[in-house]
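Think of the structure tokens as a kind of shorthand, similar to the way a musician reads notation: each symbol stands for something richer, in this case the local conformation of the backbone. In the example below we present two proteins back to back. Begin with the first one, reading the sequence and then the tokens, and try to describe in your own words what changes along the chain.
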Amino acid sequence: MPWFVYLIAIVSTPMLLFMAWTRWQAGRMKGETLKELPGGLRAADTSRALIIYAYSPSCGPCKSITPRVDALMNAGKNIVKLNVHEDLASARQMNIRATPTFILMRSGRIEDIRLGPQNIEKLTRFLDS
């Protein structure tokens, strides 16, 4: 095989392993019940469906999806934003390893964790169900 094939494999393997590890870490929280939200998230209404949106101001995908999340919040949807740069302790407690991260909760129980940009319509359907 040509040398560049080996080079591509050497460079891409650690990146793929890191992505798999991040998804595995996020999946470990699925099904957990949180009695109390950390730090600045305590004001959230956990009695109904809730989405915690963890973002970073310097994240490219976050910059594109944050205005749509803000529009949902202004429409009265139960969404809480967590800036991982400003509230690092809460991000660590929630085991957030990548941005954007959407934590979907119902009655204090984590139902799903979604990494990366998400379809806003699907998130809205979760909140409305």
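Once you have a description of the first chain, move to the second and do the same.
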Amino acid sequence: MLAAGVISVLGAMVLALVRLFLGPSTYDRVLAVNMFGTKVILLIAIFGFLTGRPDFLDIALAYAMINFISTIAILKFAGYYKITEPMTRPPASSTIPARRPG
């Protein structure tokens, strides 16, 4: 029964990766990363149950908090900046003043 749970979680992770690479918008990709992180948390919890070590649940909870906070931070950043276009620097000629002869 646990093998079926692990296989279904791995299948959901594959679907999240497909959504990550094919997502039409930035928000879809961020939510796919969040979903992938949630499935990793489930795998950590299942692994802790199978090995009989409840310490892995603490690791899973810490990872869940990091996953949540990073998703909120990325979405806040995406709200202020357009992250679909690569960030470029202005041309060097416009940032450095020309030297005056003399």
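Compare your description with these statements about the second chain. DSSP finds four helices and no strands in the chain.
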